[in-house]
Design goal:
The protein is mainly α. The chain has one domain. The protein contains four helices and no strands.
C-alpha cells in the first residue's frame, strides 16, 4: 500500500493522538534522529530493520 506524504502524516498524527503522554518524549527523540540522516542512511536503516525482523527467530536461537 503506497500512501501519499499527506496520508502518512495524517496517520502518524492519529497514532500520536492515542500514545500515552509519558512516551511522547521518546517518540520525539526517535523522530528527530531521522532529520540528520541522509537518504542513503535511512535506506540502510530500513534494510537492517527488515533483516532483523525477518530473522528474529534465528537471532533468538543464536542468542541462546
Amino acid at each position: 500500500m503506497n500512501m501519499s506524504t499527506a496520508e502518512i502524516k495524517i496517520e502518524i498524527q492519529q497514532v500520536l493522538d492515542n500514545i500515552p503522554e509519558a512516551a511522547l518524549g521518546n517518540i520525539l527523540d526517535y523522530l528527530k534522529q531521522f532529520q540528520t540522516q541522509t537518504p542513503e542512511q535511512a535506506e540502510l536503516a530500513n534494510h537492517i530493520k527488515k533483516i532483523l525482523t525477518e530473522d528474529k527467530e534465528l537471532l533468538e536461537k543464536l542468542a541462546q
